[in-house]
Design a protein that fits this description.
Elements: H1 2-92
Length: 93
């Protein structure tokens, strides 16, 4: 009986070890899936960041262009005002 008890005990330990192995494999698989999901999210965030950086660069360039245009227009208005003042002063004499 003792051999049979030892065999039963060994079978129970083996079954328990196999259950533990199955559980460990399942945890590992779930962890891999989470890591894969996180990697995909990181890639999506990197793509969004690149797209936003390009858009920001474009808007910054547009802003600089608008500033240059504003300065040019302001200078033209100043010149026109000076010309108008000169004409008015010439007519007042």
């Amino acid at each position: 009986m003792s051999d049979e008890g030892t065999l039963d005990s060994a079978v129970k330990r083996l079954a328990s070890a196999l259950d533990a192995l199955d559980a460990a494999v399942e945890r590992h698989r779930e962890s891999d899936q989470r890591q894969h999901g996180l990697a995909q999210q990181v890639q999506a965030l990197a793509a969004d960041r690149s797209r936003l950086a390009a858009a920001l660069d474009g808007e910054a360039a547009r802003g600089q262009s608008l500033e240059a245009t504003h300065r040019d227009i302001a200078q033209r208005i100043d010149t026109a005002m000076d010309t108008i003042r000169a004409v008015i002063e010439a007519n007042d004499r």
